[in-house]
Write a structure and sequence with these properties.
The protein starts with a helix and ends with a helix. The chain has 469 residues and is mainly alpha-helical. A two-stranded antiparallel ribbon has the order 1-2. It has helices at residues 2-10, 15-34, 55-64, 84-87, 97-114, 116-119, 127-148, 152-177, 184-192, 203-221, 230-252, 255-266, 303-308, 310-322, 326-342, 349-367, 379-389, 403-425, 428-435, 449-468, and strands at 94-96, 281-283. The chain has four domains: 2-34, no CATH class; 88-283, no CATH class; 303-433, Regulator of G-protein Signalling 4, domain 2, CATH 1.10.167.10; 439-469, no CATH class. Helix 8 (152-177) packs across helix 9 and helix 17 (379-389) crosses helix 18. Residues 302-434 form the RGS domain.
């Protein structure tokens, strides 16, 4: 471009020729900027590739940066690890009901074959299995989200076809070189030499490679707290490598399966007409991940127990304040108070006006788009509540039977129970409530064993005296 500009200045007498060249260049640039990717015209500027905006990627990026509590992007108040996809990747991931049911049945068979076959001899407590179900749901949701981002034509043409043709070329080269009657499989492996993949050396090497492959996926498919559990990582690694991936590779490598798939892809007959009505979309693996056990330990407090006891509620509220999510708890408490009053059959006009004012406050503080303590509710629920609170005060009685307030309360309650209650069970506030404050005194880790024993004796006596008291 600079050279052309310099020539245009030097040879001013031939400006009409350079004007044609400049017009051609500007025309190409304008066409490249205006024409879409679906244009039938070829791309003349082959050295440049235009980057198109991926709407699905933008949606996923927005959900990754969206707060689970208030729905704001890059929320400065709540914990960043509580965003929707990091904590609940199945959020907003709906699949047909029949597909969800079939997938759940498949996973139940996997659990029956590879989990219950040995776990039933160890314990009858289903808590471990419930935690494993939650992690399996997390893994499959992450894998499904990533699978939806795969460019299938690019995968088939760019990678699978090249690998298949390379494999076919090695086979044909070997067949042409070796004499008739030679074992072509062994000869092909010898022909590949150092280019032979490590999994082709032996079944043991194949299994070890799959184990390392599954381990490399852990940071992407496991929950953050599960990465620190050696038992969970070992179990997922062995089941994923030995029971799933290896069996899948054996199935894919079966010649009958490969030939059948080729015949299906090359068959030009139209697909059969769908007879069944398409099933409605449902949340991903909700029924599969339902808890099968209930923790009966007296030290394990349920949310219902906390909400009904003032001392426990105070401790939980202090924890929620530190998490900057006390608005969720306040909304549930306000809804309980509102529902207790609106169910009174003998309501006067003054009572209805007070209830209407309470409903306005609930909407203004927790549902309105400009609310400081906004909670992420469904848009339909917010719109229905808005219609009621902006209407006459007599309409407040609709909240007795209409679903918007019940759905909002259920969403906030589930947020407390499934997101913040497990965090509360692992917090210092919870253990301080059960066991008291930590001992401030520290033992100096130097000196002889006798000195260590003499240093520990006063602490033990103090603890024994406190327990006796």
């Amino acid at each position: 471009m600079l050279l052309l500009l310099l020539l245009s200045v030097v040879f001013r007498s031939y400006v009409h020729i350079f004007l044609l060249v400049w017009s051609l260049i500007f025309g190409i640039v304008a066409a490249h900027g205006i024409l879409s990717k679906d244009s039938l015209l070829p791309n003349i500027l082959f050295m440049y590739t235009r980057k198109y905006k991926n709407e699905k990627e933008d949606e996923l990026s927005l959900m990754k940066a969206m707060c689970t509590v208030c729905g704001q992007r890059k929320c400065p108040r709540h914990r960043p690890e509580l965003n929707i996809l990091a904590f609940q990747p199945w959020n907003g991931l709906d699949i047909p009901e029949r597909v969800d049911k079939s997938l759940g049945e498949l996973l139940d068979l996997v659990f029956k074959e590879f989990i219950y076959s040995w776990f039933k001899d160890l314990s009858e407590d289903e808590e471990f299995v419930d935690e494993l179900r939650t992690n399996i749901r997390f893994i499959t949701a992450v894998l499904l989200r990533r699978a939806k981002k795969i460019d299938v034509p690019e995968l088939l043409v760019g990678k699978i076809s090249k690998a298949a043709l390379s494999h076919l070329d090695a086979y044909l080269q070997t067949k042409r070189r070796v004499p008739v009657g030679t074992d072509l499989q062994t000869a092909t492996l010898e022909y590949l030499g150092p280019n032979l993949h490590v999994v082709m050396q032996s079944r043991k090497m194949e299994l070890e490679y799959l184990r390392r492959l599954v381990e490399s996926l852990f940071p992407f498919i496991l929950q953050p707290h599960a990465l620190h559990s050696k038992c969970m990582c070992s179990l997922v690694r062995e089941v994923g490598a030995g029971s799933l991936l290896q069996l899948a590779m054996n199935t894919i490598a079966d010649p009958d399966i490969v030939n059948n798939m080729i015949l299906i892809f090359l068959d030009d007959s139209p697909p059969p007409v769908a007879v069944k009505i398409p099933s409605k979309p449902v949340p991903f693996l909700t029924d599969f991940s339902e808890s099968l056990s209930r923790n009966k330990s007296c030290l394990h407090l349920e949310l219902e127990d906390i909400m009904n006891q003032s001392e426990l509620l105070y401790t939980f509220m202090q924890f929620m304040k530190r998490e900057a999510a006390v608005s969720v708890l306040q909304f549930c408490l306000a809804c309980d108070d509102f529902n207790g009053r609106i169910l009174n059959p003998d309501l006067t006009d003054n009572d209805l006006q007070e209830l209407h004012s309470m409903a306005k406050d609930l909407y203004k503080n927790y549902c309105a788009p400009t609310a400081l303590d906004k909670i992420l509710f469904d848009n339909e629920v917010v719109e229905q509540l808005k219609v009621i609170v902006e209407g006459p005060f007599q309409n407040v009685v609709k909240l007795r039977t209409s679903p918007p307030l019940f759905k909002a309360y259920e969403h906030a309650y589930n947020l407390l129970e499934k997101t913040f209650l497990p965090l509360f069970h692992q917090s210092d506030d919870y253990y301080r409530m059960l066991c008291g404050d930590r001992c401030v005194s520290q033992v100096v880790k130097v000196g002889t064993k006798s000195e260590m024993k003499s240093n520990l004796t006063p602490l033990l006596q103090k603890d024994m005296a406190r327990l006796t008291w």
